[in-house]
Amino acid sequence: DLIPEAVPIVSTSKGLHSDTLETMAELLPRVLGRQQPTAFLSGPTFAAELMEAYPSGAVMASLDPAVADACASIFHCPALRVYTSTDVIGVEIGGALKNVYAIAAGIVEGLGLGVNLTAFLVTRACAEMNLLAVRMGARAHTMAGLAGIGDLMLTCMGGASRNKAVGQSIGRGESAQSVMQSRKDSKAGVAEGVATAPAAEKLAKRVGVEAPLAETVAAILDGRVEVRVAILKLMQRPRGEDFSALAPAAEQEALARRARHLAGLSDLAPQARGTLALGAVILFAGAALVGGALAARAPRRS
Questions:
Q1: Could you tell me how far CA 34 lies from the centroid of its own chain?
Q2: pLDDT at residue 287 above 60?
Q3: Burial group, residue 80, by CB count within 10 angstroms (0-12, 13-18, 19+)
Q4: How many whole angstroms separate alpha carbon 167 and alpha carbon 82?
Q5: Is 98 assigned a catalytic role?
Q6: Which residue from 26, 91, 106, 129 could staple onto 97, CB 3.0 to 4.6 Å apart?
Q7: Residue 64 to residue 88: CA distance in whole angstroms
């Protein structure tokens, strides 16, 4: 009641609901009990650098382009360029899953396995989250922008990344439980990827996407697999075609299905019109017969 229905809500949250696997775009209308204009801000934006007015870029996504533009104009300034998008799913999935992959990047760094593997990981992670997003209805090109590869690179490689710091500690031999407890005790900040990893694993299974990186991070965090064993298993996976082609192919499939569906509806339209016309004729004829019968029974007046 405190928020008028016409006032847009700008969400800066990045994650998935641990139980329902909802994004904020799905969660907000359910919690509010109504549809509300919403926009979602995402991109490679460490808060400390924004506060210092370091030049940065972000994306404002909304299903309504006018809402996206209006909200973007509020944040856009000489220190922050804010672009618009209507791909809410892609922007939200990119913002949520990059935290999971940042834990993996931290583990690689903590183990001292070099920058080759980090670059491999980040590239593979972008393809993985892109495929998952596309299966949920996102556009493949979104992950090539600020909300996708941009935010992913910052979180996986930036020194101020909380999720990467968690991974580094795990890579150095600490258990996930002890790392999270020490961060809690020291008030070092929340690492969203810890809660998002199991949700991402479940979400991938729900939409039928193979997500080995997200699944591996979830397995490491809950103790199902030891770190070095997990990396060895990933490196021994069957070789296939370039993984960067998977999401665009999935998008083309989805667009083709939609085109076939629309074509089917257009084919049905003439049949539906014919059925309606026939029904109208039958109804008219029936009315005429009933009217004639009633007229025949009516007493004649002289």
A1: 21
A2: no
A3: middle
A4: 30
A5: yes
A6: 129
A7: 10
Cα end-to-end span (Å), the chain: 72
Assigned token pair, 69: 């533009």
| pLDDT at 294 exceeding the cut of 50 | no
Phi, psi values for residue 112, rounded to 5°:
70, 40
Q: Which two tokens stand for residue 104?
A: 């993996």
Q: Rg of the chain over CA atoms, in angstroms?
A: 27
User: 260, 238 in Cβ contact below 8 A?
Assistant: no
| CA separation for the pair 193, 164 (Å, rounded) | 9
3-class SS letters over the chain: CCCCCCCCEEECCCCCCCCCCCCHHHHHHHHHCCCCCEEEEECCCCHHHHHCCCCEEEEEECCCHHHHHHHHHHHCECCEEEEEECCHHHHHHHHHHHHHHHHHHHHHHHHCCCHHHHHHHHHHHHHHHHHHHHHCCCCHHHHHCHHHHHHHHHHHHCCCCHHHHHHHHHHCCCCHHHHHHHHHHHCCCCCHHHHHHHHHHHHHHHHCCCCHHHHHHHHHHCCCCCHHHHHHHHHCCCCCCCHHHHHHHHHHHHHHHHHHHHHHHHHHHHHHHHHHHHHHHHHHHHHHHHHHHHHHHCCCCC
From the list 14, 98, 202, 205, the catalytic residue is 98
Task: Encode pLDDT of 167-177 as tens digits.
Answer: 999 999 999 98
Q: Are 135 and 207 in contact (CB under 8 A)?
A: yes
Find the mean pLDDT for residues 5-16.
Answer: 94
User: What pTM was computed for the model?
Assistant: 0.84
